[in-house]
Design brief:
The complex is a heterodimer. Chain A is an alpha+beta fold. Chain A contains 8 helices and 8 strands; from the N terminus they run H-H-E-H-H-E-H-E-E-E-H-E-E-E-H-H. Chain A is globular and about 45 Å long. By secondary structure, chain B is an alpha+beta fold. Classes of the chains: A alpha+beta, B alpha+beta.
Chain lengths: 188, 192
């Protein structure tokens, strides 16, 4: 019986992060672009015996080993954005996430939420929600496959044993949507 | 308690037998389709790439020997084959659902296309790397790197050597051109 509980716990544990079903719901949406890195990527990244002389880069790699997933959703559709915001609000109410910081820059709002980890500098989950990005990018004419894109909303979830002091460095190294905003995380 | 145990056992049994039933592997899909209309395939054994005149370090030699071959299958999207295009993508996605294929990355959207990168192996070595991508307007491609315990940290060191080799580039380039001159850029940008 104990074994059985253990097996079930093993199956359920990976789903405990940012609502799995919520993410799946948006991933299949026509107006949503998604990026997902699984734990395996981070595990392999850490295994790469890169010749890192730079102690800072090494710290980032060490932290990467403890990340269990990175998921990003972006959408430029207004109604999907609104829906996403409502779902995130609901998720925030039902989970133990607390607001870490909030950056308002013109029309753009970036909010960070964290789930408490082993100490002040470590969190189990980092959720970033960016809204109103379209204003900021208006002048830049960003084109993807010939179509103009202006992302309205970015939802990013990072899970694992996350060292907040390393997040901005990691964001700087990974080229994912929302990475620029993620660099704003600063625990000082 | 006994009945719960039985129920769990039954579920596990069903899942296991369902898993075995799937049968169709990526390899058999490749073999079945390489001659089919709309498809293009390339199979490059690594031994085909001559490294005689290139000096390799020990790590590079090991990496080179761990790679067996590069195997690509592409499907071109035309005006009249949308149904087939969707059906084939569904087939490949179904094959890739096999838990043997561990996911590394997935991304994209329904409008432009999606990319999935999976592999067979353990935490440190890769026996098979699979890149499955589709671009809504152009088609889809399955790229497989087959080998035996490929070590990513050593493979990366091979990168320097690749720059020195020109012999195979043409074949790969032809494959990319099959979709469109611009698709090479897209596939390049997948490199992580």
């Amino acid at each position: 019986m104990k074994k059985l509980v253990f097996i079930i716990a093993l199956i359920v544990a990976p789903m405990a992060g940012f609502g799995q079903s919520l993410f799946d719901k948006y991933e299949a949406n026509d107006d949503v672009t998604s990026v997902v890195f699984t734990q395996k990527v981070f595990r392999m990244l850490a295994e790469l015996k890169l010749d890192v002389d730079d102690p800072e880069a090494k710290e980032v790699l060490d932290m990467a080993a403890n990340i269990t997933g990175l998921k990003v959703l972006t959408t430029d559709n207004e109604s999907v954005s609104a829906q996403m915001k409502a779902d995130v609000d609901r998720y925030l109410r039902s989970s133990q996430l607390e607001e870490l910081m909030r950056v308002k820059d013109g029309e753009q709002t970036v909010k960070f939420f964290v789930k408490e980890g082993k100490d002040d500098n470590h969190v189990k989950e980092l959720l970033m929600f960016v809204s109103g990005l379209s204003e900021v990018m208006k002048g830049q004419d960003i084109e993807i496959n010939g179509q103009k894109r202006k992302f309205e909303t970015v939802l990013l979830s990072l899970t694992g044993d996350i060292d907040l002091r390393q997040v901005s460095k990691l964001a700087n190294k990974m080229d994912v949507p929302g990475g620029k905003q993620l660099e704003k995380v600063n625990k000082n | 308690m006994q009945s719960i145990k039985n129920a769990v056992m039954a579920v596990i049994l069903v899942m296991v037998s369902w898993g075995c039933d799937q049968g169709l592997s990526l390899q058999s899909y490749y073999v079945n389709n390489q001659e089919a209309p709309n498809f293009i395939s390339i199979d490059i054994p690594v031994s085909f790439v001559s490294l005689e005149h290139v000096e390799l370090t020990e790590d590079q030699q090991e990496a080179y020997e761990s790679i067996d071959k590069l195997n690509m299958l592409g499907f071109t999207r035309k005006d009249d084959n949308e149904e087939e295009y969707r059906a084939e993508i569904a087939k490949v996605s179904e094959i890739l659902k096999d838990p043997r294929y561990q996911e590394l990355f997935r991304g994209g959207n329904n409008r432009d296309g999606r990319v999935v990168i999976k592999y067979i192996g353990d935490d440190t070595t890769i026996d098979e790397l699979i890149i499955f991508g589709n671009a809504t307007e152009r088609g889809f491609a399955i790229i497989r790197v087959l080998g035996d315990k490929m070590d990513p940290s050593k493979i990366m060191k091979l990168g320097d050597v690749v720059n020195e080799i020109q012999s195979e580039e043409n074949a790969v380039q032809d494959f990319m051109n099959f979709f469109s001159p611009t698709s090479k850029i897209e596939l390049d940008s997948l490199d992580m």
